[in-house]
Design brief:
The complex is a heterodimer of chains A (239) and B (294). By secondary structure, chain A is an alpha/beta fold. Chain A has helices at 41-49, 71-74, 91-100, 110-123, 139-151, 169-186, 197-203, 221-226, 231-238, and strands spanning 3-12, 15-25, 30-34, 56-61, 64-65, 76-79, 157-161, 189-194, 206-211, 214-219. With 294 residues, chain B is mainly alpha-helical. Classes of the chains: A alpha/beta (239), B mainly alpha (294).
């Protein structure tokens, strides 16, 4: 799905989190929102998900007005920073949650839910953990379960907030590859937020560098390395 | 880390003290203090109540409980608790939900208001209700004109008990819900769940133990509340006397077996709720351990 961000601004009280920013995300792309903390990248991601509403500006999905769509209507698969798995549910129930939350007429029979959850657990290469609770999983396993749960709703886009932030270096590399593979397999427009420039440049098709609520530069990793648009970008990507 | 651990174990041996362990004498002194204090402050009074109740045998104490006034008091106490506990559970969950999951103007004021019943003496609360709903106020006069009796009647007792026990459940829930944050709720929303469904399937299960504990505390206090109810009930025998009021009246009339029998019954009601809680914790120990913080 093509995502168009048109002059989106966001204020929290008197604090300006986003100056009007515009961005066009091509369908099927893997995009990184890169910037230091407080740069507005997470706010922008949450606006796409419908978890925040912009103070002004518009969001368009496939050229259709989407600014006022509720979070449920957007069908955005969202992976939270600390995964936000439902701690009192098994992995199976976590992944099945979105399927069970469908309106009654669209609800699937139990056998079909079971099949879909199994397929998703196979996809994240953790086929045997359905009966476990989140507290019994490692950090990397939790992240993959969160991804499976987000994919279960057959989302129109995949949004990830610092998906690798809480993991050690080795697991990070593996899961990075995992996200790339899942993106390529599903073809979903994917936006992830990170403050790690190496991660953004290694993984994304297109990197959006943000600072103080503004977009500094948008470009492919090679372009950003070769032609940084500002001193900030040069300093930040060289770090 | 994993390489160093076996070596450390070899050197320190099995019975070696942990760094956090105090010397033997200090440990025994501290444990002794705790045992003595709990014995004198918690166990001894309870034992004394039961001993006094049974001083003239089972038969005498059961007779003490069998009088119509005692029956009326027990019934009234249970009905008041059955009304106030669910209502306060509802208010407590609503208040805790609003405070912990949303930001709004006046939040600090709301938290202070919830604490008010803790800081105000129950007698003062009872007096305040009498002033507000009594015959001398315009609201009271209007109510009496419309044949709605609140003071010295059942509704007054319920109101007083509601006021006094209001903070128990909210106070128990707020820290738990604050700590859990909003992420799980937000995750459920992105997965397409409606607000009510999120509350039912995510929020409520996450707070069920705190809620249960709050309900038990609230229930114990609702059944045991004396001060506020004493003022607003008017102590009409057989009509507006709850168990604690009845106990005091019997005691003042030197009917000590009847008084202590009723006191023992009240204590038993509280012990039953504690027993239920322990049973549930034991029954669901695995689930509790699994769902504690990651």
């Amino acid at each position: 799905m093509h995502i168009e961000i048109d002059e989106i601004a966001k204020e929290f009280g008197t604090a300006r989190a986003l100056h009007p920013v515009s961005l066009s995300i091509p369908s099927g792309a893997l995009i990184a929102l890169l910037g230091p903390s407080g740069s507005g990248k997470t706010t922008l991601l949450r606006i796409l998900a419908g978890l925040e509403f912009p103070s002004s500006g518009r969001v368009l999905f496939d050229a259709r007005e989407a600014t006022g769509l509720s979070v449920q209507e957007r069908r955005a698969g969202f992976v939270f920073q600390h995964y936000a798995l439902f701690r009192h549910m098994t992995v199976f129930e976590n992944v099945a949650y979105g399927l069970r939350a469908r309106p009654r007429r669209a609800r699937l029979p139990e056998a079909e839910i079971g099949r879909r959850v199994k397929r998703l657990l196979d996809l994240i290469q953790l086929p045997d953990i359905g009966a476990r609770y989140p507290s019994q999983l490692s950090g990397g396993q939790r992240q993959r379960v969160a991804l499976a749960r987000a994919l279960a709703i057959e989302p129109r886009m995949l949004l990830l907030d610092e998906p690798f932030g809480a993991l050690d270096a080795k697991v990070r590399k593996e899961l990075r590859q995992g996200l790339r593979e899942i993106h390529d397999a599903t073809g979903l427009t994917t936006v992830f937020v990170t403050h790690d420039q190496e991660e953004a440049l290694a993984l994304a098709d297109l990197v959006v560098i943000m600072s103080m609520g503004r977009i500094e530069q948008v470009g492919r990793p090679t372009d950003i390395r070769a032609r940084p648009a500002s001193d900030f970008v040069r300093d930040f990507t060289a770090a | 880390m994993s390489d160093a651990a076996p070596a450390l174990q070899l050197r320190s041996g099995k019975s070696a003290p942990q760094v956090t362990t105090e010397p033997r004498a200090a440990r025994f002194a501290l444990i002794g203090c705790v045992v003595a204090l709990t014995g004198v402050l918690l166990f001894a009074p309870l034992a004394a109540v039961f001993a006094e109740a049974l001083a003239q045998g089972w038969r005498a104490s059961l007779e003490g409980l069998a009088s119509p006034d005692a029956h009326a008091a027990i019934r009234l106490t249970l009905i008041v608790a059955a009304i106030t506990v669910p209502l306060n559970a509802l208010f407590g969950v609503a208040a805790a939900w609003a405070i912990s999951k949303f930001d709004f103007r006046g939040k600090a004021l709301l938290i202070t208001l919830i604490d008010l019943p803790f800081s105000v003496s129950p007698v003062v609360a009872g007096l305040a209700l009498v002033l507000l709903f009594g015959a001398n106020s315009s609201l009271g006069a209007w109510l009496i004109a419309h044949d709605l009796k609140i003071v010295f009647a059942f509704p007054g007792i319920v109101l007083a008990t509601l006021f006094v026990t209001f903070p128990f459940i909210a106070r128990e829930l707020i820290p738990v819900m604050m700590e859990q944050g909003r992420a799980e709720e937000e995750a459920a929303l992105t997965l397409g769940a409606s607000g009510w469904r999120v509350f039912r399937t995510v929020t409520l299960p996450n707070i069920r133990w705190a809620l249960l504990y709050g309900v038990l505390l609230c229930n114990a206090r609702a059944m045991g509340e004396f001060g506020a109810v004493a003022v607003i009930s008017g102590k009409i025998r057989g009509e507006t006397t709850t168990m604690p009021i009845m106990i005091e009246m019997l005691y003042n009339e030197y009917l000590s077996v009847a008084a202590f029998s009723l006191a023992a019954a009240l204590a038993l009601l509280a012990l039953v709720t504690l027993g239920v809680k322990s049973l549930l914790e034991w029954r669901y120990a695995d689930l509790l351990a699994a769902t504690r913080r990651h």
